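Running log. JK asked me to keep both predictions on one page so they can be read side by side. First protein, sequence followed by its tokens:
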Amino acid sequence: MEAIGQLASGVAHDFNNLLTTVVGNLDRIALHRQATPDVRRFAETALRAAQRGTSLTAQLLAFARQRPLHPTAVRIDRLFDAVLPLLRDAVGETIDVSCEADPDVSAIRIDPGQFEAALLNLALNARDAMPRGGTLRITARNAIVAAGEAQRREISAGEYVVMDIKDTGSGMPADIAHRAFQPFFTTKEEGKGSGLGLAMVYGFARQSGGTAEVESRVGSGTTIKLYFPCSDETALCERLPPPLHPVTPRKPSILVVEDQDEIRCLLAEALEQCGHEVKTSCTAQEAIALLEQGAARIDVLVTDFMLPGGMTGLDLARKARALMPDLKVLTISGNATQEVIRASCLERGAFLAKPFRPSDLTRAVAELL
């Protein structure tokens, strides 16, 4: 797990830096006022391919438990209501899908988006195991995991919500079921599966404080069990309204610090198109020198987390705050591990994971302002 995590982090950082440039420029092509319909269609096709590359990296990071999550306390019945139509569309009319939670089932603290992705992965696997149709039953119940059982499952003892995702498919022999959660292991034909779907589900469950198990017999279908710790928090029932963006009396000034030339130019141009005054730097030391000159006030510092010269973006943010206490900071990174995000969570700060579209950048800056 540790070796895979290190590999995934290194791949993600370099790959996401490349994808930031690719996605950003494709987005600009698709939105350019002089682009013909054919050019827009070509750009949008390439964008979808780039986003699939992002998804593959994210799945590997999820297995290695290094993908950032945004957990919140949620009610299971609300999750099921939201995801059921998606699952039915994904598996087709020949498979009967149902979701049912016990009336007294507890709230859990998870990332709703990643939970939806995990269930979708499981539903697609179930569909492939039932080519002639069948049933997919998803249930949720409370359970107490005692100390001995918890040790065997490598989780903490206590109260859990257990979800059973059961299909009536062909099932798997024991040797295949034993390897089901291994990354890149797949029984599908070449080109029809990356072998990361179940690995992502397992990584998501472990990162959420629980675990995943598989029970399967040839001819008797497969059941995937997901364990999530119960939460004492009040479940979030309604979405919060989006924050308002106050109008500033002057053009906000942004300092962009990024060592990759293509990305730095892309970020600067996107911000300038929104009316911001933008200064750029490729190192933390150069940025500090610029701030010390005091020639112009900077409202927002946009900095990559990994910078050359021995200083991280976080080191830069701290030194910059010493010079300008009211400075707002947006940290960006292609290696969006939990450690990087926690380190980047400064007061009056935000984090944006690469790759992102120019509109994501300008929205993040607007929310800081």
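And the second, directly underneath as requested:
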Amino acid sequence: MREPRSKIVLGVDGGGTKTIAILSDLSGQVLGYGRAGNCDIYSHAGAADEVALAVRRACASAGIETDEIATAVYSLAGADWPEDFAYWQAVLEERRLGARIQVLNDAVGALNSDLPEGNAVVVVCGTGAAIGSRNEHGTIWHSSFWQLTQGGGELSENVLRAVYRAALGIDPPTQLTRPVLEHHNASDVEDLLHMFTGRGRQQPGNRASLVPVLCDVAEAGDAAAIEILKQHGAALADFALTAARKVDIADKPFHLLLTGGVFRNPSQIMRQSLVDRMKASCTDFIVFKGRSEPIKGAVVTALRAEAGRVSADVDVKLNETFPPHSFFHT
């Protein structure tokens, strides 16, 4: 590979639903961006092809070739075990998707999006969930397969379960039933159950699609919906507390970053449950609402690798030229 003609960096954020690639110069000017599908190697055999496609689309958008990328940072779901990192490093180098390549677990990339330094814990709740932590010395931990509670996909499954149990009379009726049936265009609950379990039936595409329905019904006061959100928040809090302990910051001041699509919903029920559960064991933290898309962490990490630091001016330029919010919508 020839040496890059200019200092262009690449950040990639990939999960079980979408993969985003963003190119920037060292001033923070976004040059191009691209999008592809699922890149989790545990759920998609073509994961590497999706990453390559997102990068190629970003390069086409910027009018550059892949061999002009100086540093590339890949923040990926499914980068969990040592062999996963080795796989991605080899695949990305073989495809020449950056002169210098660094692979991160997606929780670590998200942590760097708004809190690139200091004691911090991040809870990412999107289609799935990822939790990571870092102390002031740079020691990191990510939940990976320790993470038993997931994101919007699991919340949506819990919504369906609540509707099924109510239909059978096991639990009291819930106001979730009608909007869930309407959302999936089902005639009744048995039709809904058949839709998700019938042999040969095509599954609905977005696994987390019921999160807005859940939050709206909870905000209207439905007990079942409220309980689903509260239990999920408390379960995520247990892993966040573990993340803090893993890097020895549970008894020190730290920032708690809450980010991802589920936390962008206006409902505060799950967020408050998570914070309350953590405060019962650990009080010296400040909740930091995620302002940036998780991919910003990958871009910032690449910029720091090239320039040593990211100045306020660079950060402002990056924010000003970032893709529109609609580009990230799932």
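Observation for JK regarding the second prediction: The domain at 8-106+292-328 is CATH 3.30.420.40 (Nucleotidyltransferase; domain 5).
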